[in-house]
Specification:
The complex is a heterodimer of chains A (about 250) and B (about 150). Chain A has about 250 residues and is mainly α. Chain A is about 75% helix and about 0% strand. The longest helix of chain A is centred in the N-terminal third of the chain and has 33 residues, at about 15-50. Chain A is globular, with a radius of gyration of 20 Å. Chain B has helices at about 5-30, 40-45, 130-140, and strands at about 55-60, 65, 75-80, 85-90, 100-110, 115-125. In chain B, a hairpin with a 5-residue loop joins strand 2 (about 65) and strand 3 (about 75-80). Chain B has a 5-stranded mixed beta barrel with strand order 1-3-4-6-5.
Chain lengths: ~250, ~150
């Protein structure tokens, strides 16, 4: 029974008016959650957690750098799952959502690269190094930009989305490369601090802001993606009847 | 799932697996070129070419740093625990540079095994902790395990 209801709910999301309504209802909550988590996280990061034994206060940029890096990769995985659904089931709202995820993921990648560069100069002594971790992250940014460019290059939006979805799946190979680059090769970038399996290398007193910022950034990704998807849908369907009805309702 | 969708699912799976396999083959072949630095052991095994720019990575040996009081010249030894390479450098060192710290020196190895660096980068490990915790760990004789260099 539950499975059947889920299935019906999933299929309803394929209908533009339902999808539009869901985006409009969810988005403010996600933005509010993001602001709350980011405020708590930044307060902890800047005022509460102790300095690092080696890097002093400079390491506090980690609380933006690491959540941004994780989200850059998580966004890509979410986008790839959406792309597979879009290619197999050819659901238009899913195609739109996939394409809406790309600029948000690209923004997190750029933020990760920029904060990493700012952090690298005082600690490592250089803004940039062509090691495997930094280079694979730069490649991720280019893949995101490629997906956005490909989608925009087609007159027919659905065709553009389908072609870009294929590129999304091709680029998925870069994600494990980024993650394992610090284990497979020698890099300037250090190894992973937080590990899903095994003990993390960060003192527990420093963890709260990292958790708050990570949750906040995930909510922000969801909010920005849904807003972008809603805008894209409204623009594509601006001459359709359901939008006329929608405007009629609110007027 | 309809037959068309099953077919599309197979194509999607093949695409991801195919690209993954191609990347695995390519990066296995390129493995040596993906390394950002070589260790003193590699240098001793003559794996590193002489008179060619390389990056040497390791720890600054304890008690090896000698600064020239009149210039920016500095000499130190880079070690990986098994082999040592003497390094000379003239310039400003990163803030994290100290004995026992991970460093990457970019430069040339001359014939007598001396490394002339034109750039020195500091490498920090993945451990983060407050200074007091580090002090108590040190006094208890359990400094954190350093990352693989």
């Amino acid at each position: 029974m539950i499975f059947h209801r889920l299935k019906v709910g999933f299929h309803r999301l394929g209908s533009p008016p339902t999808f539009h309504k869901l985006c409009r209802v969810l988005s403010p909550w996600l933005w509010a959650g993001f602001l709350l988590c980011a405020a708590i996280g930044l307060y902890y990061a800047l005022y509460v957690v102790p300095p690092d034994y080696q890097q002093g206060d400079s390491y506090r940029i980690l609380f933006i750098h690491v959540p941004a890096a994780w989200q850059a990769m998580a966004s890509y995985v979410i986008m790839a799952i959406l792309a597979a659904i879009a290619l197999i089931w050819r659901i238009r709202t899913v195609e739109i959502m996939t394409m809406a995820a790309a600029p948000v993921g690209a923004a997190f990648t750029a933020l990760c690269l920029a904060t990493g560069s700012l952090w690298g100069k005082p600690m490592w002594g250089t803004w940039w190094a062509w090691d495997a971790r930094l280079t694979s992250m730069l490649v991720l940014l280019f893949i995101y930009l490629g997906i956005m460019g490909l989608y925009a290059a087609f007159e027919d939006r659905r065709k553009g989305a389908r072609v870009a979805c294929i590129l999304v799946l091709v680029g998925l190979v870069n994600i494990p490369l980024i993650h394992f680059s610090v284990e497979w090769w020698t890099t300037l970038h250090q190894g992973a601090t937080i590990r899903l399996l095994g003990e993390s290398r960060m003192h527990p007193s420093m963890l709260p802001p990292l958790i708050w910022m990570t949750i906040g950034v995930k909510l922000m990704f969801g909010a920005a993606m849904l807003d972008r998807a809603r805008n894209d849908l409204l623009e594509q369907d601006r001459r359709k009847n359901w939008i006329r009805q929608l405007i009629g309702e609110s007027a | 799932m309809t037959p068309t969708r099953k077919k599309r699912l197979a194509i999607v799976a093949l695409l991801v697996l195919g690209v993954g396999a191609a990347a695995a083959v390519a990066f296995t072949a390129l493995n040596d070129n993906m390394l950002y630095f070589v260790s003193p052991t590699d240098v001793h095994a003559a794996a590193a070419p002489e008179d060619k720019q390389i990056r040497l990575g390791g720890l600054v040996a304890a008690g090896s740093v000698q600064r020239d009081p009149d210039s920016l010249s500095v000499r130190f030894t880079v070690t990986d625990g098994r082999h040592d390479v003497p390094v000379s450098f003239e310039g400003i060192l990163p803030d994290l540079f100290r004995e026992g710290q991970g460093v990457i020196a970019h430069g040339r190895l001359n014939q007598d095994g001396h490394f002339h660096a034109n750039e020195v980068l500091a490498r920090h490990d993945e451990n983060y902790m407050p200074p007091e915790v580090m002090k108590s760990l040190e006094s208890a004789g359990h400094p954190p395990e350093a990352s693989k260099q």
